[in-house]
Fold:
Amino acid sequence: MTATTIEADRGWMAGALALAGHQLGAVWPNPAVGAVVVGDNRLIARGATQPGGRPHAERVALDRAGPAARGATLYVTLEPCSHHGHTPPCVDAVIAAGIARVVIAAEDPDPRVDGRGIQQLRAAGIAVEVGVCRDEAEALNAGFFSRIRRGRPLTTLKLATSLDGRIAAHTGVSKWITGPEALARAHLGRAQHDAVLVGATTALTDDPELTCRLPGLQHRSPVRIVADGRLRLPLTHKLVATARTWPTWLVTRQDAPSQRLAAFEAAGMEILCVPPGREGGVDPDAVVQALAKRGITRLMIEGGGQIAASFIAADLVDRVDWYRAPIILGGDGAPAVAGLDIDRPDAAPRFVRVAIETLGHDVLESFRRQG
Structure:
């Protein structure tokens, strides 16, 4: 291929990736995929995976292209599926549409696909290029890749603290440490995740709604999850009372009393029972495995300190979004992360900062786990 062709391919794929990125948090258990149909270096049609994961991006784009797809190039951010699920294989639709060339960013790690889609396209005489913007595509769908390869969702720990790492004053009051710009950005983060998890203490202390309240994005609110090993959450709590309006899951221990669980189920909550963890809590490894089995690919943890510590100690935090306000609450404030029993700094989990953003008077730093 010429340098001009490579540059053009990257440009069209960048557009497909942008389409996919807009769907993060809305398409689980499926990956967020974007597709663009191009003919004579002109945009014919585009599509993205639709809410709930269907229809797939390729079908949306091809349906919009109609007969104009014949002889065109299809740019797609993930290998087209080749298996029968809720819908027929996308490779069949691509072949039937008469597409002449398919440019794919990354292979689909799902064992039902895993290169088979590419093989079928080539067997049908379609030219296939793989690997254009691969790193960007794999980063975008890191949650889907994690669920398939590691059996757990990609996990982001979101913290909103003072400069000295406190999430509340010594009285327990935490509203509001950060300002409105940071709050809006945090709500956008919720919209981009499949689920948001808090511990029972945070639920009881903060009485959060855990929804996305940005105008026009309320429908993109994530599944709300409360980890409550000792079932301290009252049936009158806001999260319970609104469980029929916003999907809400309760994660608790396997030995929880069945009569109490039935009351939560009757209120509209889904119950996930997992093995016990430390100090009466739930086992973090079992939690993320249970969530992955239900299709969750991107999980955001919003506190509190004990939940944060338990997931960090279990090596389950992949990313950290740390919002810092220019205030100091002092050592008697509530810490963002509870004790980890780390003896030496070189034994601590290490993260790499990948982005920094100013939000009003606050700062958002984003980190990725090193290694």
The chain has a mean pLDDT of 94. The chain has twelve helices and 16 strands. The longest helix spans residues 3-21.
